[in-house]
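Hi R.,

Here's the chain you asked about this morning:
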Amino acid sequence: MGKADDPDNKVIARLREKAERLENLESRLRVLEREREDLLDTKLQMSSELEEYDRSLKEWEWFFEHSVQMLCIAGLDGYFKRVNSAFANTLGYSKEELISRPFLDFVHPEDVARTTRELEGLGEGHDSVSFENRYRAKDGSWRWIAWYCPAISSVTTKLFAIARDITEDRRKEAEILYKASHDSLTDLHNRAAFEESLESAIALQRRNQAGEVVLYLVDIDGFKEVNDQYGHMAGDHLLQVISERFRKIQRAGEMVARVGGDEFAFLVEGTADDSESYPFEPLAERIIAQVSEPVELNRGTVTVGCSIGISAFPGTADDFCSLMSQADKAMYAVKKSGKNGFRKFDPSLT
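And the predicted structure, written out as tokens:
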């Protein structure tokens, strides 16, 4: 064996040192290469995810802006953060006008309180589904809007809402309800609406125990003769003219309806305190005066009259049926006694 300071041994030692260092370098290089590959894979993955996120964001932006539905993003502070074109176009404002003011500025005064409560509910975790309120459009009209909006959650800080303009739906509903409760010829309330109001008035009087409910049944005297002499179109015109006159003399607390062919009814409720009786004569006299005015027809002028039967609840009548029956008996008593007058029901007519 050579000595430690032998030149050959020194060479071996240096070689061993270099070999070990080389292996360490190679080992470290392999580690670095693996880390580089991992980093490259991570970079590629991150690039792919970023591209996916960017694509999704662009799709959302396109959907938000080009959707035919009204879309908006709002905050619990009461301001719109963003609105899409459909939203702005529906109301007629620019996007800048809508986001520059509190959205309650656009809400109908009668709907502000409800809208505020709905907004508070969204902040407390309650979704808004089919909430409806009215927004003022730029032309001054009111648009009915139906809202769908998820509540604020642990991962959201804004309100993302879809809205729908239901103004036309509301108009059609109102038109259907109007037609269901009004006479198509005269535009007065029809019999169904009148009977419903009469029943409600009786129920209200029973609860409050105050005032009277007074019913006037009005039958046109001489209407059949006008029909026979001048034709049904003339008869219809006569009814329309009389109906318009009735509408003009109708006062607060009174309701007028066409309840039959040539038969009308007036309902008066909340008439008086318990200490005094309702003076039924003035309305009856106004009705007779209006009916008795001449009516111009295409083929001449006609004058008709009317017979009016009056009944009251409480008093002689104690329910809906007796109220109707008593007014009917009083009206026919007028017809038998010469027509064109009025009479309040009394027990002698039973």
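The chain has a mean pLDDT of 87.

Let me know if you need anything else.
M.
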